[in-house]
Design a protein that fits this description.
The chain has about 190 residues and is of the alpha/beta class. It is built from five helices and six strands, in the order αβββαβαβαβα. Strand 5 (about 120-125), helix 4 (about 125-135) and strand 6 (about 140-150) form a beta-alpha-beta unit.
Length: about 190
């Protein structure tokens, strides 16, 4: 029993003498050619970058990307991944400009923190198709992607989604329950505050 007490005492002494680990994440925000961005790099950065691509939004770009860095940002940062997001430079169905926005975001990251070892893309809805587009065209070393509910199969049908929405609101305006829930801003994405 004495030897067990001695071993436990030595272990407790060794553990208590270890320096405490503190996190000092570095966050930068800004705007580049109409696209606002947020980038957070943890103190224990593992060299990899995760880019969160937000979903469809009727609102013009703002200083905070819709959905921020995403619902898993805290977990990713705790595991050493840098996390970045862009508002995109245009609102709505913006696939004609999102590729340039992603390239600019990576450029800002590299200018401030150096080139990442690997890039991982993810996003839901419109962010899912932006993620797929990034896998095909991003001029960086993309090693993984997670497009969530992206309009990937038959996505050209989504080109008319804003027109369909406005047409529905006009035709059904006088009918009980005639407008879609969420009004002009739509419904919040799962996992994000309204």
């Amino acid at each position: 029993i004495r030897s067990r007490i001695l071993v436990v005492s030595l272990l407790l002494t060794a553990v208590s003498s270890l320096p405490s680990v503190t996190s000092a994440d570095t966050t930068i925000t800004g705007e580049k050619l109409g696209a606002f961005f947020r980038i957070t790099v943890p103190d224990n950065w593992n060299g990899d970058l995760v880019i969160n691509n937000h979903g469809f939004d009727f609102n013009p770009p703002t200083s905070v990307p819709a959905g921020g860095l995403g619902p898993l940002a805290a977990l990713m940062l705790s595991e050493g991944y840098a996390v970045a997001a862009s508002s995109y430079s245009n609102c709505c169905w913006t696939l004609w400009s999102t590729q340039q926005d992603l390239n600019r975001l990576v450029g800002v990251f590299e200018a401030n923190f150096g080139p990442p070892n690997n890039v991982i893309l993810h996003g839901g809805s419109l962010g899912g198709i932006v993620t797929a587009q990034g896998v095909e065209k991003l001029g960086s070393n993309v090693i993984g992607a997670y497009p969530i509910c992206g309009a990937l199969a038959g996505s050209r049908s989504w080109d008319g989604a804003p027109d369909l929405r406005l047409t529905y609101d006009v035709i059904c305006a006088g009918v009980a329950g005639g407008t879609l829930p969420g009004g002009a801003t739509g419904l919040p994405s799962p996992g994000f505050p309204p």
